[in-house]
Design a protein that fits this description.
- With about 190 residues, the protein is an alpha/beta fold.
- It has a domain at about 40-85 and about 110-180: Rossmann fold.
- Helices cover about 30% and strands about 35% of the residues.
- The chain contains six helices and ten strands.
- It has helices spanning about 1-10, 25, 30-45, 60-70, 130-140, 160-165; strands at about 15, 20, 55, 75-80, 90-95, 105-110, 120-125, 145-155, 170-180, 185-190.
- It has an eight-stranded mixed beta sheet with strand order 5-6-4-3-7-8-9-10, sandwiched between helices. A two-stranded antiparallel sheet has the order 1-2.
- Helix 3 (about 30-45) crosses helix 4.
- It is globular and about 50 Å long.
- The two termini are about 10 Å apart.
- It binds guanosine-5'-monophosphate (5GP).
- Belongs to the purine/pyrimidine phosphoribosyltransferase family. Xpt subfamily.
- Its EC number is 2.4.2.22.
- It catalyses: XMP + diphosphate = xanthine + 5-phospho-alpha-D-ribose 1-diphosphate.
- Pfam families: Pribosyltran (PF00156).
- It is an enzyme of class 2 (transferase).
Amino acid sequence: MKLLKEKIESEGIVLSENVLKVDSFINHQMDPVLMKEIGLEFAERFKDEAITKILTIESSGIAPAIMTGLALNVPVIFARKRKSLTLTTDLYTATVYSFTKQESNEITVSNKYITKGDNVLIIDDFLANGQAALGLASLVEQASAKVSGIGILIEKSFQPGADDLIAKGYRLESLARIEALKEGKVQFAKDRQL
Ligand code: 5GP
C-alpha cells in the first residue's frame, strides 16, 4: 500500500536490525486519514470472505481494526492482555510472547463475542514471529469459528511469522512488507500478490 510505505519511509525510525519505530502515526500518535485508507484497503482485499467479525489485540491494532470494521460494516473485538485470570469460565485465553516487551501475556476474549459460524478477520499492526496472530487465531478456533484472514499493516518478512502463518494455511494480507532494516534504512519487499 503506497500511502503506508511512504509514511514508513518518511517517519519510520529504524531502532535496530529487528525493530521499526512508528510512534508518529501508529503506535502513539495516530494518523486518522491513513487509518481510514487502511480500513478501506483491508475491506477491499477481504470483501469476498463474508467477514462477520474483526478481531485485534489492544492497543495498537484497535485503530486499523475499527476502520476496517466500519468499511465492512461488522463489529470489532479487541483481545485484552491480562496477567492473571481468576474467572475463566466465559473467556477464551491464549498465551502470547511479546516480541517488543519480551514477556508473556495471557490474552483473552469473552465467549459472548465470537461464536460458532463467525468468519473472523484478524488485524494487527506488526507481524514479526507471528505470536500475536497465532494467539488471536487460537481464540477464534476455541470458539469453533473460522479465521477467514489475517490483515497486517507492517510485515517484517525477514522474521518467521509470515511464512509460519501461510504454512498453517491462513490467508495473509500485509500492506507493507519489509525485507530488511539495515544501516538505519527500511528496505521493502515486493507485495505478495504481485
Ligand atoms: P509477533 O507476535 O508477530 O512476534 O509480533 C507482533 C507484535 O509485536 C505486534 O503486535 C507489535 O505490537 C509488536 N512488534 C513486533 N515487531 C515490531 C516492530 O518492529 N515495531 C513495533 N513498533 N512493534 C513491533
